[in-house]
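To close the chapter, one final illustration. This time we ask the reader to focus less on the individual chains and more on the assembly as a whole: which components sit near each other, and how the overall shape emerges from the parts.
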Amino acid sequence: MSVLEASAEATAPPPAPAGGRSLVATAWLRIRRSKIAMLSLAVVVAIVLFAILAPWLTALSGNNPFTSNTSPEVLDDLETPGLPLPGYMFPSAQHWLGVEPALGRDLFSRLAYGAQVSLTIALLSTAVSVVLGTVIGAAAGYFGGRVDAVISRIMDLFLAFPHLLLVLSLTPILQSRLRGTPLGEGSFLPMASLVIILGFFGWAYLARIVRGQVLSLREREFVEAARAFGASHASILFRQIIPNVMGVVLVYATMLIPTNISAEAALSFLGVGVKDPTPSWGQMLNAAQAGNWYLSDPWFLAVPGIMLAVTVLAFNLLGDAVRDALDPKAARG
Amino acid sequence: MEPQEILRVEDLAKHFTSGRSLLAPGRARRVVKAVDGVSFSLARGRTLGLVGESGCGKSTTGRMIARLLDPTAGRVVVDGQDTAGLRGKDLYHFRRKVQMVFQDPFASLNPRQTIGSAIAAPFEAQRITPAGGVKRRVGELMERVGLKPEHYNRFPHEFSGGQRQRVGIARALALEPSVIVCDEPVSALDVSVQAQVVNLLEEIQEDTGVAYVFIAHDLSVVRHISDEIAVMYLGKVVERGPVEELYSSPQHPYTRALLSAVPIPDPRAARAQVKIRLRGDLPSPANPPSGCVFRTRCPLMATLAEPERERCSHEVPEPASFGRAACHFADSAALT
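The assembled structure is written out below.
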C-alpha cells in the first residue's frame, strides 16, 4: 500500500476548486463515503500487506516456499484423490493450505511469496509505463509539430499491434539478451524481462491521454508566464505541466496495475514468464495445469486463481473509485 | 528633457496562417492579420494604455512585445535592442527586461505550485540569487504587493482573484523588468478590487520606474493609469495621443464611440451624454474591409458624400502626425 498512498498524496488532479478543501481532501472524502471504494481499498491493503509480510507469515508455520515436505502425514490420503478436499490440499496446522502435489512445497508460502513476485512485477512494469507514457506524451503535446507527429505515429503503432503475440515472441529474445547482464541473473531474469516487456508495451495509451491534456495546458497563461521569465523547456514540462496531469496519470496507473497483474499471470501461465522454482500466481496456475493436477486437485488451481481474481477485481474497483473521486465534473462531495 | 525611451514598436505585424490542409494542398491559405502595422513608443516609468474590443489584436501585440509570439513583420526595440533576431542566450537574457501580468488570475498561476515557489521561479529560471537569498526576496515581493509572506506555502486556490493577481504582479516584478505588459490585469476582477490593483501598479511604478503597456478593453480603466493611449481596431492603431487630450477631444469616430460607451456615475450627466452606437459586427480579420478598416461600422459614413466615401473604401488612412487619428475626415468628425 505504501506505493499507492505515497502517490495519492504527492499528486492531485488538474483544476483546483475555487476555495475550501483541496481536491485531494475532497477526493479522499468521496472515497471514504463509498462503501465499494473502502472495501476495495481494504482488500488491496490486505493483499499488499500479505505480500510484504510473506517472510513473517510463513515463518509462523515454519515453512518456506522452496522446501519439499513429502512425509506421509502431509500427503495423508494420497490414495483417494478427488473432491471435495483431497490429497495434497488437506489444510493442517503445519501447512495451512496443504502442499503442492508431487514436490510437497508449502502452498501458503508459495502463495505469499508469489504475491510478492506478482505484485512487484505489476507495480514496477506499471511504473515503467507511467514514466514513459507521461514523459513521452507530455513531450508530444508540448512540442507539437514534427515531434508530435512522430510520437503520435509510434503510439498508433504500439496500440495497433496485438500485444500478447508480440510479448510472447519478444520475451525469449529479450531474455537471451539480458543473460550475462546484472538484470539477467538467475531467478531475476524472468522478472526483469517481464517488467521491461510489460512496461514497454503499456505506455502508449497513457501517452495519448497525457498528450491531449498537455495540448490544452500548454496554452494556459502560467505556461506563458514561465516562458516570459525564460524557463527552459525541461523546467516548464516538469515543473509547470506534468504536475497538472498527475491526477489523470494516477487514475490510469491504478487501472494499469490489475492489467499488469493479469498479464504477468497470463505470461507465466503460458510459460514465458516466471518459472519454477520462483513462485508467482501465474507460475502456480501453470504448475497446476502442467501436471494435470487440477483434475484430481482443483483446489490447487483454485487457490492462486481466486487470489488473482480478488486482487484484480479489488484494484479495478479502486481504480474506478479513484477516477470518480478525482473527477472535477462530479458533484461536490 | 525628453524622458528616455525604453520601448519602441515599429510597424509591428502578426499574420496567422490557417487552413493548411494535407488533402487540399492547392487551396489558398487564409491569412488572419491579427496585428497589422502597429507603431508606438514608451518612455521609462510611463504607461501606455492599449485599448480596443476583443479580437482587435491588443493581446497579440502585448505577447509580441514580451516575445511570447514572433512578429511577422516590424520591430520591437527594448532599451535600444531590437528583439526580433534574439535567439538562445540573448533571448534568455532579454527575458529579464520584459515581463507580463495576465488577465485570468486563475489560469495565470499553476494550481500545483505554491505561490511562494511561483514567485521564486523567475529567479531559478534566470539563475539569479538576490542579496539575502531567494526566499527572503520573495517575502519582500509578497509584502510589496500586499500579501503576507507567511502565506509562502499556500496554493493559489486558497486565494481570491485579487490576491492571485497580486501574486502574478509579484512574479512579474521578481526580475526587476524595465517593461511590464499588463494584459487586461483587472478585467476579471470585481470593481472594488480593480481599483486596488490599479493603485498597486501605480505605486510600484513610482517606486521602481517600470514602464507599463496596459491593455484594456474599455477606456474607463486605462484613463486612471495611462500617460498615453493607443486605440486599436482590427489590428491597427486608429488613434494615439496623450490621455487627457484623447479624452477631451477624441478625433477618430471609433474612439468617440468607445468614449460614449463609458458609463458616467452621475445620472443627469449620463442622460445628457450622446451615445454613439456602432452597428454591425467586427469584421473578420481574415477578410478586413479595403481602405479604412473602420468604414463598415463608421457613423461618419452616413454623413459623407459619394466621392468621400470612395476615398474611405480605397485609401488606407494614416495618422498625419502623433496625436492625430487615422481617419480621412477626423477634422469634420470632431465638429459633429
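The interface with chain A takes residues 63, 66, 68, 91-92, 95-96, 98-100, 102-104, 106-113, 118, 121-122, 124-126, 155-158, 168, 171-172, 174-175 of chain B (CB under 8 Å). Chain B is about 35% helix and 20% strand. With these observations in hand, you are ready for the problems at the end of the chapter.
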